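HUMAN: Mind making up another protein with tokenized structure?

ASSISTANT:
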Amino acid sequence: MGLDNVAVQWPRTGRFYDPVAPAEFVDFAELADRPEVAAPTAALAGHIAKTGTVRATAYTELVDLLLGLDGVLYATDAAAEDEDPVIDPDGCAWIAGGLERFVEGHRRYGEVVTFDTVAQVLRDAISDSRLAEKQLRWLDNRLDALRDESGAGPQWSFALSELSLLAAFYRRCADRGFAVYADY
């Protein structure tokens, strides 16, 4: 079992959230059918188009690192307050924006997203900031926390188009006023 991020109607009207009809994401299937699309991107696009859901487990560490918080896709802030684990439309916009900026910054490093390229993109983004030295120390601490006892980082290998599609899912939810329920 893993984490699913399910598009749901916002706000809820009864005791439970109503899932968004997969028809709201049917255009994602067009991407899944293109022969030039990387296999992971096509699989994600097909799954979103059929279910209105992202199997988010594989992306949790990456999204947490990119956005600088823990448990973003688990909606842990809401859960900690004894609320439902839901990312509201504004939260979806925030996630989408962070992923979109990352994708844009990664383009110069190619189509394959690895731990090392993520670190470089984040360093590039931070190095121009006003408090670069402090933020770079923070980043180094976050990166070190993800390394195993031998010093190796996570074996991430995402297609950049896959992360762009992930951003598109959260952007669609934000633009149409949907929330995302963290189902695990």
Summary: Residues 63 and 72 are 7 Å apart (CA to CA). The chain has one domain: 4-183. The chain has a mean pLDDT of 95. Strands lie at 4-9, 53-55, 86-87, 112-113, 158-159, 178-183.
